[in-house]
Design a protein that fits this description.
It is a single chain. This protein is mainly α and 248 residues long. The protein has 11 helices and 6 strands. It has a two-stranded parallel sheet with strand order 1-4. Strands 2-3 form a two-stranded antiparallel sheet. A two-stranded antiparallel sheet has the order 5-6.
């Protein structure tokens, strides 16, 4: 780890190129705050942010005004809940609801209900929202064959759920692999399935990278399907083949 501090921090621009959207997007406010914090600890420092004049007021508001921290667990609940089911910490629908009451998400539901789509903050509203959330998530896990639910509401893990939890694989990826791989799947098919994993969907596409990827694509033993766009999963397919082929 390298400690790098300065009395003056200059942020040259507040945008970065996003290859997936094919446009420049603003830095997350958290990244800007971390850049500003590179001054010498315990001493005063200055930070200069160079940006377009049209963004000046909005950036000042984001940097100087306090912003509430909200939970996004409701969007990523499947994999944590699957892990709890596998570890037998959650064995029923009621256990899953009780598990959520110990999270930061539950605390924020009552503080900012509109942000999470609640109509009220009463116990009935919270209970109904948590029940619907758990039913949706468990239904998705059951459909993916990661867990089993009985008529009484009891939950038990299945093999795919155990594999996903043990290897930290997303439930959607393990469902994709289980439904796609057969005894007749060739190397090309395995590579395409592997590169389609949801974990690769966040692989960044950097500015000017398309030219290099297209050059690498011409040398691949297994070409992507005709008309395939250069997205994150296609980039993963290209890089995986280069790695397995030991290409520099």
């Amino acid at each position: 780890k390298i400690s790098c501090y300065a009395h003056l921090v200059v942020v040259m621009g507040t945008e970065a190129y996003d290859g997936r959207e094919r446009r420049h997007i603003d830095y997350p406010i958290g990244d800007l705050i971390r850049m500003m914090g590179r001054n010498v600890p315990g001493m005063s420092g200055k930070c200069v942010i160079l940006c377009h004049s049209s963004k000046k007021d909005s950036l000042k508001k984001l940097l100087y005004d306090p912003l509430p921290v909200e939970s996004h667990l409701d969007s990523y609940l499947h994999d944590p809940l699957n892990a709890e089911i596998v570890s037998k910490s959650v064995t029923s629908m009621q256990d899953a609801i009780d598990y959520l009451t110990w999270t930061f998400l539950y605390r924020r539901l009552a503080k900012n209900p509109a942000y999470y789509g609640l109509q009220g903050t009463s116990s009935a509203h919270l209970s109904e929202h948590l029940s619907e959330m758990v039913e949706t998530v468990v239904g998705d896990l059951e459909e993916s064959k990661c867990c089993k639910i009985t008529d009484e509401g009891d939950l038990s893990p299945l093999n795919l759920g155990m594999i996903a939890s043990y290897y930290y694989v997303q439930y959607r990826t393990i469902e994709l692999i289980a439904s796609s791989v057969t005894g007749k799947t060739k190397i090309r098919g395995v590579l395409e399935i592997l590169s389609a994993a949801w974990e690769f969907s966040s692989l960044p596409m950097r500015f000017g990278e398309e030219k290099v990827l297209k050059q690498l694509m011409r040398t691949l033993p297994h070409q992507p399907p005709e008309g395939t766009s250069l997205d994150a999963n296609t980039k993963a397919l290209i890089l995986l083949q280069c790695h397995f082929s030991r290409k520099p």
